[in-house]
């Protein structure tokens, strides 16, 4: 089994040994409840790095809603078994006290990239993500870090964070993994009822249809309006946003290439997705 460390000091000792031997260290930061999408990040990490760490930490500060935090799936035994099979060298699963000791007082805000979309609907979320990711980089001392494109805005925020703070880590974004019907893999999908799971791919299908029309020259606004209607008629109850954005700055745009971002509610679950246009 892959060893699980819970204390930063132990992690630093192990990583120092690897680095002294000239080994390149990669990290895949996660909140656990691992699925094939996470394992694809691990596979990519193993291609570039001599040693791969997976962090499992359900970061309480990045949840806007205490009920969502309480409901977040925690499956450490199953996660550890998957990571052992995947050949991960080390699991770092710190306690909240290790990450946020008494007196913890720092918050990192990546302005601009964080502001719209998820930032509007989840105030403070990206400050919490940027802060914990900077901490995880400091704790693991990783040379490379791997993030899913599923959370496109998070990836953009992390890239900005690393550039602005000259953090010595190279960020790699990895393509979203999807179920055969197109639904983007997410730990939250497990909470969908069978009927909602059946309806869920409508989000990605409508986005793809809109992306294709826009790519073929249709004006974005009516294409997005049509997608909006299709998503709601499939059973989604609310769309937080469906927007064509600049892939790096996330500013709204009508210019291609762009990234189409969406967040919508189905059966009380908030699903997000994004695709290139
Ligand atoms: O994407 C996630 O799972 C989390 O936001 C991350 C990057 C592990 C930070 O808690």
Q: Which features would summarize this protein structure in a list?
A:
9 strands, alpha/beta, binds pantoate, 277 residues, single chain, three-stranded antiparallel beta sheet, six-stranded parallel beta sheet
Query: Roughly what percent helix?
Result: 40-55%
| % residues in beta strands | 15-25%
Average pLDDT works out at 97
**Sheet with the most strands?**
6 strands, parallel
Q: Ligands in the structure?
A: pantoate
Shape: globular
Question: What distance separates the N and C termini?
Answer: 42 Å
Rg on CA atoms, Å = 19 Å
Q: What is the H/E string?
A: EHEHEHHEHHHEHEHHHEEE
What does this structure look like?
The protein is 41% helix and 18% strand. It has 277 residues and is of the alpha/beta class. Strands 1-4-3-2-5-6 form a six-stranded parallel sheet, with helices on both faces. A three-stranded antiparallel sheet has the order 7-8-9, with helices on one face. The model has no long low-confidence stretch (mean pLDDT 97). Residues 29-31, 59, 62, 129, 132-133, 151, 154 line the site of pantoate (PAF).
In short:
The chain is 41% helix and 18% strand.
Q: What topology does this entry show?
A:
Blueprint: E1 4-5, H1 8-20, E2 25-30, H2 36-48, E3 51-56, H3 66-71, H4 76-85, E4 90-92, H5 96-99, H6 118-121, H7 125-140, E5 144-148, H8 152-164, E6 170-174, H9 194-199, H10 202-215, H11 220-233, E7 238-245, E8 259-266, E9 269-276
Parallel strand pairs: 1-4, 2-3, 2-5, 3-4, 5-6
Antiparallel strand pairs: 7-8, 8-9
Helix pairs in contact: 7-8, 10-11
This protein binds pantoate.
């Amino acid at each position: 089994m892959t060893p699980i460390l819970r204390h930063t000091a132990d992690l630093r000792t192990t990583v120092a040994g690897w680095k002294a031997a000239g080994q390149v260290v990669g990290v895949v930061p996660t909140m656990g409840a691992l699925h094939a999408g996470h394992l694809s990040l691990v596979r990519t990490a193993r291609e570039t790095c001599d040693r791969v760490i997976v962090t499992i930490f359900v970061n309480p500060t990045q949840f806007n809603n205490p009920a969502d935090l309480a409901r977040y799936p925690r499956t450490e035994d199953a996660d550890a078994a998957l990571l052992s099979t995947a050949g991960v060298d080390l699991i770092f699963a710190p306690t909240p006290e290790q990450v946020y000791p008494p007196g913890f007082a720092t918050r990192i805000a990546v302005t601009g990239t964080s502001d719209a979309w998820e930032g509007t609907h989840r105030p403070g979320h990206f400050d919490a993500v940027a802060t914990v990711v900077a901490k995880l980089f400091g704790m693991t001392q990783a040379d490379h870090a791997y993030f899913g494109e599923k959370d496109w805005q998070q990836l953009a925020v992390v890239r900005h964070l690393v550039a602005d703070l000259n953090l010595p880590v190279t960020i790699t974004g990895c393509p979203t993994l999807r179920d055969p019907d197109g639904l983007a893999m997410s730990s939250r999908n497990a909470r969908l009822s069978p009927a909602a799971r059946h309806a869920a791919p409508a989000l990605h299908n409508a986005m793809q249809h809109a992306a294709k029309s826009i790519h073929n020259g249709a004006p974005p606004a009516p294409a997005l309006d049509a997608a909006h209607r299709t998503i709601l008629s499939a059973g989604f109850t609310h769309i937080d946003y469906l927007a064509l954005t600049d892939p790096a700055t996330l500013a709204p745009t009508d210019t291609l290439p762009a990234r189409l971002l969406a967040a919508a509610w189905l059966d009380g679950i908030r699903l997000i997705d994004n695709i290139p246009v």
